[in-house]
Each structure stands twice: as structure tokens, then as C-alpha cells.
Request: fold
Amino acid sequence: MKNLKLKSARAAKDLSQQQLADLCGVSRQTINAIEKGDYNPSINLCIQICKALDKTLDELFWE
Amino acid sequence: MSSMYMFMGIGAGVICALIILMILKLVRGKNGSCKGEPDERQERLRGNGYKFGYFTMLAGIAVVLFIAGRTNSVAVATLGVWISVLVSLLVFAGYCIWNDAYYGVKANPRKYIILMILITVVDGINTYLQSLNGWIMEDGTLNTGAVSMLAATIAFGGVLLIMLAKQLKDRREREGEDEES
Reply:
């Protein structure tokens, strides 16, 4: 299932996938896979993404 | 005579060490840090790739043993095992490259592509040199040197092609992302 909340939060911050990936220390393809719903990130990575986007886990990853 | 071989051996060792250092310098960052560190998704996919490669090699060796047992040919067994190893390498590398798990997080794929071009060209030259003696030896057996080098050239050339195709796919994906935003 696509993670549209993550995609819109990233777009709201005007970040590209590569920029968000650099902030989180992962590859661009990993961010792309999370947004497309192809990969379930670990809780540590979820927290890193939330910190980079100034969001909470609930806002980005809770359905 | 023996001292000449000794010096040739030392020379070959020094050349090998220099080549390894050059490759390490190409792959590592300016401050010596390794840029090939994978992230969590890449680690998982590399594990899958390793598994697929391993089982491919087991299956290949089983087929080779079956054929070698029927033909009683040492050349077939040797070449078969070598080709099995190369095919398993191709499966591992191909799977990892296509799933974005081959290069580390901040690694530059171009360096790997240049390295693979060099390896493929060197293997191609070696194949040509080995094939000058002919593909079939005078006693009717296969020229194992030439065939094994040809197999290596095809395998590394295959990895190179997958790398290039993946680069093209990534570029289109990035362009698509730019258009969306």
C-alpha cells in the first residue's frame, strides 16, 4: 500500500527523495520503496524520517 | 634461473598489490571511509541475492557432476564448476543491482561501471590471447583457458549490461519524480 502521507509530507517540505534519503542516511531507492509501499522500514528508520520531516510516527505511518 | 622466477614472482605480487590498492582507492571515499555501506533494505536484499546465487551454484554443480559422471571428462567438470560459479555471481550481482542493493548508500555507480568495463576489457583481451591457440586442442579436448576466459568475459559483460540498464531505469525514474514535483 502506497504511503501517500510520507510523499505529501516530503513534498510539503520541498524535499526530493534524494534529499530526504541523505537526511536519513539511506539510499534514494529506499525512500522510493517506502513511498510506493514496497518496503516496510524498521522503527529506527521511521523515527529518522519523522525527525527529518518534523512529523510524528502517527502522522506518517499510522493508518 | 630460479632467482629470475623469484623476481618475476615478486614483481607479479607487487603489480597485484598495486591493482588492489587502485581498486580500493576507486571504491573508497577521499577520507578513506567506505562508501559501500548498505542501508537496512539493501542488507536484506543482499541476503536474498546471496541465497539465490548460492542455490544457483548448487544446482549448476549438480548438473555438472551429472554430466561429468557420464562423460568422464576432467575439462567438462572443471569448466562446468567455473561456469556455475560465474552464473551464481551473475545471479547475485544482477539481483542486487536491479533491486538497488549493490552499491552502498553514498557510493558512485559510475566508479563501479568503470571498474566493470576495465574487468570486461581485460577478460576480453585474455580470451582473445588464449583463443590464438585455437578453441579445440590438438588432442581434441577443449582449450579450457580460452573457454573459461570467454565465460568470465560474458559473465562480467552481463553484470556491466545490467548496471547500465539499471542506470537508465533510475534516470527515467528520477525524471518522472521531477515532473511530479
In short: The radius of gyration of chain B is 20 Å. DSSP finds five helices and no strands in chain B. Residues 144-180 of chain B form the longest helix (37 residues). The interface with chain A takes residues 39-42, 100, 103, 105, 170, 173-174, 177-178, 181 of chain B (CB under 8 Å).
